[in-house]
Amino acid sequence: MKIVEEDKKLVLTEVCDFNPVHTFMCGQCFRWDQENDGFLGIAKGKAVFVKSISDTQVEIYNATKADFDEIWQDYFDFSTDYGKIKKALSGDDNLKKAIEFGSGIRILNQDPFECLISFIISTQNSIPRIKKIIAKMSELFGEEITYNGKKYYAFPTCDTLCKLSEGDLAPLKVGYRASYILDAAKKVKSGEVDIYNLYKLDTLSARNELLKIKGVGPKVADCILLFSLKKHEAFPIDVWIGRIMRLLYLDENASMKDILKYSSENFSSFAGFAQQYLFYYARENKLIG
């Protein structure tokens, strides 16, 4: 991949296996919105606009080469060989179809604390409502960012959230999740859950640490592991993935334990990638509700 810094943007050429639509619309993130011919996103305290020019060229506005080296190369997982992953998974006919359909999916390496709070909010919530809550939370408690004359807001820090009360969170209308958000912030702040160092642990140990937090069950923990801690063998199972796996691989009576066993034995260290390809393919083709 070649990177050229031009006026207020980066031009990436010879890009492989990256399509912003596939990546931002596969359910892994909540702060990217489609605008005109690209996506406006708030991540790592920055506001950027990402636009696909062709299958092999992408432009990132409001970013420098230094930003790319420090933030965006890792965030967009550009160091990972997705061609190798696709080849390994394409021996499975269902996955081959899913990969062809969502060939430009990349798993984003999001901030672990933001990912933790976001997926606590996601519990029993629709994506539009999750996005609305996170945007409001950021507006109320995050740092202001200006881009193209508009105001945006970074995700609030752990230091900020752990000082709040449930009353402070009332405008977000998150209900019972308010106590979970505060519990998460306090446990991260105190170091009881050292979220920024969980990547150093094996997946099971990291998952057990996350399960110490109120409102974090196996599905939320696995989302955090996969989308912010590079635990690619994690296989988050929500109601939709459960339906997909029962429809394509198992039977209607398969339990979560059965699904996890199948994913571990058949998708192995690439289970998280398989999950994203399958979810996007099934949802976009209406194989699930």
Polypeptide structure, described:
It is a single chain. 46% of the residues lie in helices and 15% in strands. It is an alpha+beta fold and 289 residues long. A 6-stranded antiparallel sheet has the order 1-2-6-5-4-3. A two-stranded antiparallel sheet has the order 7-8. A hairpin with a 2-residue loop joins strand 4 (38-43) and strand 5 (46-54). Helix 9 (203-210) packs across helix 10. The radius of gyration is 19 Å and the shape is globular. It starts with a strand and ends in a 5-residue tail after the last helix.
Which structural traits does this protein have?
globular; 289 residues; alpha+beta; two-stranded antiparallel ribbon; single chain
Q: TL;DR of this structure?
A:
The protein is α+β, with helices and mostly antiparallel strands and 289 residues long. It contains 13 helices and eight strands.
Tally of DSSP β-strands: 8
Order of helices and strands: EEHEEEEHHHHHEEHHHHHHH
Uncertain regions spanning at least 5 consecutive residues: none
Considering DSSP H and I runs of 4 or more, what fraction of the residues is helical?
Answer: 40-55%
- List the quaternary state of the chains: single chain
Q: Bin the strand percentage.
A: 5-15%
Which structural class do you get from the secondary structure elements? alpha+beta
Helices, by number, come to: 13
What's the overall average pLDDT, rounded?
Answer: 95
Q: Can you list the strand order of the major beta sheet?
A: 1-2-6-5-4-3
The N- to C-terminal Cα distance equals 38 Å
Tell me the overall shape.
globular
Please summarize the sheet with the most strands: 6 strands, antiparallel
Radius of gyration, in Å, reads: 19 Å
